[in-house]
Amino acid sequence: MKVSELIALLQQQDGDADVHYAYGAGDYWRTQLCPTVSRVYEGSVAQSEYHRMDKLIEDDIDDAEIRTVVVID
Questions:
Q1: What is the per-residue DSSP string for 9-60?
Q2: pLDDT, tens digit, 9 for 90 and up, residues 17-35
Q3: 3-state class of 5 per DSSP?
Q4: Nearest 5°: CA angle at 44, between 42 and 45?
């Protein structure tokens, strides 16, 4: 999803509503956890071969294709 798409979707919502994000807990019951958003920032990600998805990069990694993205935390 692009930032412009997220903005368009958020503009359809109540401007006074709390914002949460959902993710799977990875447990037996397939619980969806839903904490509040505490910050939005620019971060760097690279593909994790082990997880088969992007991971947040905190240190310089020479052998990875690093991309800058907007992170919702």
A1: HHTTS-TTS--B--EE--STT--EE-PBP--EEEEEEEEETTTTEEEEE-S-
A2: 999 999 999 999 999 999 9
A3: helix
A4: 130
